[in-house]
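Entry for the shared binder. Reason: the reviewer on the internal report wants the predicted structure included alongside the sequence.
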Amino acid sequence: MILPDSILGVLGGGQLGRMFTVAARSMGYRVWVLDPDPHSPAGALADRHLKAEYRDESALSEMGGNCAAVTTEFENVPAETLEFLEARVPVRPGARAVAIARDRIKEKTFIRDQGLATAPFFAIRKLDDLKAACQQLRMPALLKTARLGYDGKGQVLINSLEQAQQGFQQLGETPCVLEEKVALELELSVILARSVNGETAVFPIGENRHVNGILDTTCVPARIDEAVAHRATEMAQALASAMDYRGVLAVEFFLADGSELMINEMAPRPHNSGHYTVDACITSQFDQQVRTLCGLPPGSTDLLSPVTMVNILGDLWASGTPHWERLFEHPQVKLHLYGKRHPRPGRKMGHYNCLAGETGQAIEIAEQVRLALGTANDA
């Protein structure tokens, strides 16, 4: 076990790294952040900010020689970085799990190989792969880059072979997956923490709503049947067990036809849809990240209150500084800003959690605050 006053390292210095840093320092640990951005949100709160590239061997040697353990805040850390550190210090989650999660072809193939459902898909590595894929998939379909796509980026809606060929060229003819666009009823997420001993704690399932490919709200508890919740939890745990996963894992699901569950993707880290845990659960997803990194058992994931989480995007600053005083008029709302200097449309600047006695009340409060801040969304 790694105990307080030890130094923990995190690769990546965005909002997830920032919230990890807050949790770790609150628990008595010191934190080093490696991120090349001099204005890193996590670096601003860390004990030390190594302003270097992720392949910088000098910075990695410092981290490997001084940190008791290292984690990541995003899955696109170079493979050689994780391998370099794993030879010197515990890294959780490990390079194998991160490699699976950062490549959609590997990820979806791995999920399918475990006997777990996904939307029908084909790997597209060259232009010639598209003809057979389009013949066997029902349209419409989505063409997604295998790497680096997030928040709706790196994907094209496809209705024909011709569109697929054009989309593949538009995406730079980089490896992709082509998958059927599911007529879904709900999008759900399961977030769990798995210890070095395989002990697993699962958070209450989140019901997610996306707008323009970006997560807008997460409502907890999700408004789904108990049988669906049980099956989603089992599927997420099976995936974590198959990878011998150590850390916090998020698994996103599509729900179709009332009960058909398909895994959309996974993230080897805390997740945007788990931000509600900071205020509404006994243990937050970031507390769990610290615990699993340090070889400690996961904490309780009991829900203290129904909650709705709302993302705050840079669009809110279009007319100047937001009227935060209107948010603070609601005593059941908790604001979390990420310390980013430059708001841009679509950029995640923060979130707020609305707690209430029941899910419907939490949703109502969330929309009241949205309207008060001038961010009503018609989508």
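Summary line for the report: The first strand starts at residue 7 and ends at 11.
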